[in-house]
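Input record, target 12 of the design panel.
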């Protein structure tokens, strides 16, 4: 069953910031990068489980795939795939996960 892929506002902003950064050197590569990110997200409609479980969350419904050096973090539900964040691989996940009880937990909005 195909799922509907939906981007959160946070993830859209993340992608925009990454594109702006790349566009400083090359608008062409920035546009290409955005296309790659969107295509990667769109491909999750039929195979969302292919991404790995985000190690910081330890939740099986929160997964990630890489687009270049960026982590496309998403949540899988029975009918949807929510793109939660699009962050550089070295960025701190504190704004997505809260740390308590000795591990990270997904912040549900």
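The sequence produced for target 12 reads:
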């Amino acid at each position: 069953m195909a799922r509907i892929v939906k981007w959160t506002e946070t993830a859209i902003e993340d992608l925009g910031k990454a594109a702006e950064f790349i566009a400083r050197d090359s608008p062409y590569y920035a546009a290409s990068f955005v296309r790659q990110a969107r295509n990667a997200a769109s491909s999750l409609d039929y195979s969302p489980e292919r991404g790995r479980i985000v190690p910081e969350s330890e939740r099986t419904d929160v997964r990630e795939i890489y687009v270049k050096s960026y982590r496309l973090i998403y949540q899988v539900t029975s009918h949807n795939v929510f793109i939660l964040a699009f962050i550089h691989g070295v960025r701190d996940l504190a704004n997505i996960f809260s740390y308590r009880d000795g591990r990270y937990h997904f912040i549900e909005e």
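The beta strands are 4-7, 52-53, 62-67, 70-76, 80-88, 97-100, 103-106.
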